[in-house]
């Protein structure tokens, strides 16, 4: 895979060094070399609007069939109080053999790097107990996949101490992730509290059913003084999920009738979130929603129980909207009730700008949302009974543009 690291050309000419060439408008390219060899790849980047028009770069590619495979083992040396490890390089390669300086060992404790061949095994004494990430790196460029590295974590301690962490709770089905934090240890036995076990170092386990599960870890390391240790029990609480369900009316749809959603979730659901599929949402149990345009919408209900577990369900809701627009010509702001605020009325209103003026032409109210109406106040004070004029510019969802004026 080749890439022009500047990527500022308009045209690229590639010569892959094996007789194949290519011209592209993109700064990336790829090719498969089928034969062993060393190839000189040339790239010409061209932009006729620049001062130099063209620039050329070269890179050498070595294609081989002698891929090395890295591997090593680690063993703590006796006595059990020892902090000395023996590392055996088990890497393999088809041809040629590894040389005396083919590898670099990094023991993960900040000590100097160790350059070595395949044999003999390396010994390293650590200054303190702990967990160390050991890296074996292949640096011999005779191998086609060099440089290459392999990492492994060793747990070094005079005694094995089984420890782990995991979140204490989840929702069924719950995928519990276990983090092994043991001191020392080479072999593991996890008991998940539901009759199942694992010998993985850091397992993931699925609890299908709600319940309380007592988990423990048995760690074994025959090089330590105590050889085996068992952790304390850790309790995981798996809670049931609620069941989200709903219906709606009208179904089938009716023209310009808002959709009423009826929540039929399980009794343990106490909190809800509705996504109506048009960018709007609600946290009401049984909301009524007015869609703005004809269409089919994916409405989704999320139901939560007190433990935070959630379930969701989605349904396709059909809606018919015939765009309409109107403004009432009277209201009673000081008397309360449904007529105490004046709103723009209608359906299928995409955009709107509604301005209301007093008899002196002073702007006393402005709105771009039909859900925001005027309560008859200006700067916090109720305005006197009078005739007020308005202008309303609206764009409906069917593309109509309407301007209305009135009082």
List the helices and strands and how they pair.
Layout (H helix, E strand, L loop, with lengths): L1 E2 L7 E5 L5 E4 L3 E2 L7 E10 L7 E10 L8 E5 L7 E6 L13 E4 L7 E3 L5 E4 L4 E9 L9 E9 L7 E2 L3 E3 L2 E4 L1 E2 L6 E5 L5 E2 L5 E4 L3 E10 L7 E3 L3 E6 L6 E4 L9 E5 L7 E5 L5 E2 L5 E2 L5 E10 L5 E10 L4 E3 L18 E3 L1 E9 L5 E5 L9 E2 L2 E2 L6 E8 L4 E6 L1
Parallel strand pairs: 15-23
Antiparallel strand pairs: 1-4, 2-3, 2-5, 5-6, 7-8, 8-11, 9-10, 9-12, 12-13, 14-17, 16-20, 18-19, 18-21, 21-22, 21-23, 24-25, 25-28, 26-27, 26-29, 29-30, 31-32, 33-34, 33-37, 35-36, 37-38
Task: Note down, in words, how this protein is organized.
By secondary structure, this protein is mainly β. It folds into five domains: 2-63, Immunoglobulins (Immunoglobulin-like, Sandwich); 72-156, Sandwich (Immunoglobulin-like), CATH 2.60.40; 164-239, Sandwich (Immunoglobulin-like); 246-319, Immunoglobulins (Immunoglobulin-like); 324-406, Immunoglobulin-like (Sandwich), CATH 2.60.40. It is 0% helix and 47% strand. The chain contains no helices and 38 strands. It has strands at 2-3, 11-15, 21-24, 28-29, 37-46, 54-63, 72-76, 84-89, 103-106, 114-116, 122-125, 130-138, 148-156, 164-165, 169-171, 174-177, 179-180, 187-191, 197-198, 204-207, 211-220, 228-230, 234-239, 246-249, 259-263, 271-275, 281-282, 288-289, 295-304, 310-319, 324-326, 345-347, 349-357, 363-367, 377-378, 381-382, 389-396, 401-406. Strands 15, 18, 19, 21, 22 and 23 form a six-stranded mixed β-sheet that branches. Strands 3-2-5-6 form a four-stranded antiparallel β-sheet, with no helix packed on it. It is flat, with a radius of gyration of 36 Å.
């Amino acid at each position: 895979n080749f890439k022009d690291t500047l990527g500022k050309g308009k045209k690229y000419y590639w010569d892959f060094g094996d007789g194949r060439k290519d011209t592209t408008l993109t700064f990336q390219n790829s090719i498969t070399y089928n034969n062993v060899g060393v190839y000189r790849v040339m790239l010409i980047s061209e932009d006729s609007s620049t001062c130099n028009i063209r620039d050329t770069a070269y890179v050498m590619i070595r294609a081989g069939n002698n891929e090395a495979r890295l591997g090593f083992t680690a063993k703590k040396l006796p006595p059990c109080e020892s902090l000395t490890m023996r590392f055996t390089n088990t890497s393999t390669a088809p041809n040629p053999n590894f040389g005396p300086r083919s590898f670099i060992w990094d023991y993960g404790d900040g000590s100097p790097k160790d350059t070595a061949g395949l044999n003999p095994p390396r010994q390293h004494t650590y200054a303190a107990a702990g967990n160390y990430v050991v890296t074996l790196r292949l640096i011999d460029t005779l191998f086609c996949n060099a440089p290459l590295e392999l990492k492994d974590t060793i747990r070094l301690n005079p005694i094995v101490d089984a420890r782990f962490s995991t979140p204490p709770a989840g929702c069924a089905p719950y995928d519990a992730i276990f983090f092994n934090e043991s001191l020392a240890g080479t072999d593991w036995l996890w008991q998940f509290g539901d009759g199942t076990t694992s010998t993985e170092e850091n397992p993931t386990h699925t609890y299908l059913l709600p319940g309380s599960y007592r988990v423990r870890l048995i760690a074994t390391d025959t090089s330590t003084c105590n050889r085996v240790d068992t952790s304390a029990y850790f309790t995981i609480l798996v809670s049931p999920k609620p069941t989200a369900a709903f219906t709606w009316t009208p179904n089938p749809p009716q023209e310009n009738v808002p959709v009423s959603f009826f929540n039929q979730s399980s009794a343990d659901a106490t909190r809800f979130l509705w996504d109506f599929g048009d960018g709007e949402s609600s946290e009401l149990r049984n909301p009524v929603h007015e869609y703005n345009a004809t269409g089919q919408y994916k409405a989704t209900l999320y139901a939560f129980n007190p433990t935070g577990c959630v379930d969701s369900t989605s349904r396709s809701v059909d809606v018919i909207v015939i765009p309409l627009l109107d403004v009432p010509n009277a209201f009673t702001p000081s008397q309360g009730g449904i007529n105490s605020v004046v709103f723009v009325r209608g359906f299928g209103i995409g955009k709107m700008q509604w301005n209301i003026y007093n008899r002196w032409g002073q702007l006393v109210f402005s709105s771009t949302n039909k859900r925001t109406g005027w309560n008859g106040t200006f700067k916090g004070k109720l305005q006197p009974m009078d005739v007020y004029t308005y202008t309303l510019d609206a764009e409906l969802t069917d593309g109509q543009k309407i301007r209305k004026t009135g009082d």
